[in-house]
Design goal:
There is one protein chain. The protein is 49% helix and 10% strand. The chain has a 3-stranded antiparallel β-sheet. A hairpin with a 2-residue loop joins strand 2 and strand 3.
Length: 391
Amino acid sequence: MGRNRISKSKDQHNRTKRGLSVVERGDWLHIQGTITVRGESIRYRKSTGLNSKAPENWDRAEEILRKVESEIQDQVIHGVKPTPLFAELVEQYLLNRDPGPTDLRSLEELLKKFGNMRVSKIRKAQIDQFYRERFSAHSPTTIRRHQRSLSAVFNFAVEDELIDHVPFFSKPKIKKKKGRNMNKKFLIGEAELIIDCAQPHLKPILAVLLSTGARVGMTLKLLKEHFILVRTRGRVSFLDSKNGNAYRRPLHDYTIQILKEWLKIRNDTRPEMFLTPKNQPFVIPKGRGGQIKGSYNKARDKAVRILTQQGSLDRARVIAKSTPHWFRHNIANTLRQDKKADVKTIMEAGMWESEKVLLDNYFGDTHEQTDAVVKSIPIGTKLTQNDIEQS
């Protein structure tokens, strides 16, 4: 397979006579030549994006050649301009936009599936099947979040007049239930009880989650150098967040003390702040969580037993449903309900970039104005004899 590859089939021979051919340039296959339609000569030269070293790519390049010929004829004869490749849309989108890490990962997978396809040839059923198979075990909310990456590319392409309209594809319905997250909050001492019941390796992790409301994944990646463990001036720097931004957040003295005790127990020179029960760094698979789920459940269940023994049955039932991600909900609900903090302050404290995400997914309490109006209703006033006589 090389630059002088000879095509022996009659069909391939005719295509070469018409002017277009597949040639090898360096390690890549190109389609080039001049095609004449109704007396109009059109010169074409473009890479297929296929590596010439793979024998099967020559046949794929021939298929692309046939499509190119058909598209050129449609354009000249019928005035139908071919839509760009999906890869071309993504390329222009990345040149003009600055997507975050999650969007980049989504686009990488979409390119593998649709990169060499004309946008006009991508069917709704193909898009739906891609998301159905790729996210078969995920919630509708997760699917919609990843679909936003595809929508962003299509919307940009329409704005930039690369395509005429946004291709249609199915979006799973998400039914928002108001107030569903308002109980994801620890009362005073409950989170500390869980931490007391935790294994030594888990205590410092939960203490940082309690103090910052950070995500578990970004917390487990932290190194010792990211911390300043000085009372009243403690800080932690998150350099690898889900949205790609870096944050520096204060640490409560309670958390600083637990971290110091943890480092004293370890007494090693490893750079990682957190280690597994086997004293190894956490390995976080791409797009997955759950690294501390088992350890957390044991600590939580022990705390639930203590609450039950103390007679706090209602709170025991609530805490029994908690997960490590509750610590993120907790900082939102605590600042909102107890400290009456405004949304912007809570976004800053919990490292949220989207107000909508915070409002929809992390707390759902009654607004202060509604509280005041409801509490002003004269409920509980007993009827007096004078009221009876006046009526």
